[in-house]
Amino acid sequence: MNLKIAVLSGDGIGPEVILQAKKALYAIGVVFDHEFVFEDALIGAIAIEKTGNPLPEQTLNLCLNTDAILFGAVDDSKYDTHSDSKSRPIQGLLKLRQALGLYANIRPIKPYNDLLDLSPLKRKIIEGADFIIFREISGGSYFSEKKINEQGTLASDLCEYSEEEIIRISHLAFRTAQKRKKKVTLVDKASILETSRLWRKVVTEIAEGYPDVTLDFLFVDNAAMQIIINPKQFDVILTENLFGDILSDEASVITGSIGLLPSASLGNSNALFEPIHGSYPEAKRKNIANPIASIVSAAMLLEHFGLHIESQKVYEAVHKAIELNVVTADLNPYSKFGTNEVGDFISNYILSKDDLYFKSDNVYIGQSTIV
Questions:
Q1: Where is the signal peptide, in residue numbers (predicted)?
Q2: Which of 107, 235, 291, 361 is surrounded by the fewest CB atoms within 10 Å?
Q3: What is the pLDDT of residues 266-321, one digit of tens each?
Q4: Is 235 a catalytic residue?
């Protein structure tokens, strides 16, 4: 298979972790005889600095004419919420989602057995947890009308959804549940919000077409609590933009590090794959950022194109890195391995698991032997 992939590394640690994802894909290409052509483009703060636009036309045109997008992170401390700048890095990502028609953000939550003790939650609570959050990302308060008065003392963000926006992501969620544990949980606030009542009405109607899938409902405040006290009850969580943004980040505590979690953003004809962590500018160019989320996002890219054996090979390599403690300091504070070393190990394992470039006995006792 030949795939053209737009690489939008973005800001902060984005370039470092995306480089490791590219290494893994290159290794997959070598082993399985695929050709992945990467083309880099600007987005976010770096794009503002170089072009004055968080999403330059050249970047958008590239993304519209590629098979998939590998995305890093956007944001920079100088564009924080107190900045007077009219152009912010996050606008580049939001505009890209709109332009590509991306409407479903998919975030799998499944802790690694070797890392269960890293979570602040008890092992007995999280062991065996395995669910996916389907977050609608094209509507709601993030994209609807926004107002602020001249004095800057009154503001509003309209939350608006149409039936069509709800229908298209709901079908994705139900079809995924059919292949898993056959349960969808709709998270809303239907006791108060009209948009939530519309969600509940539409999703209930759609559920009738999936008689093998159980549908239940949780108010968002209860869902936030249940994710912490009993995450194993969930299979597929379906929710709107704002709720999904908050809940998916909350769910990252189950795995012990936000640096482990990938995501896919899908539309009818476009797909973007990215780690859920932010730009983490404090770690920029320090070789300490965890690249696993980006590498597993690349695995999701492979799976999206039906390359399931190849995707499993990436997961196998990631599991082996964790098993042998070839990880960054967020997973092991005594680790001697950095972003590049973890990426090198994973790509090398994909190329030849029997010809690794380190001495495994020394890795087990925590001594770096990268050569």
A1: none
A2: 361
A3: 999 999 999 999 898 898 999 999 999 999 999 999 999 999 999 999 999 999 99
A4: no
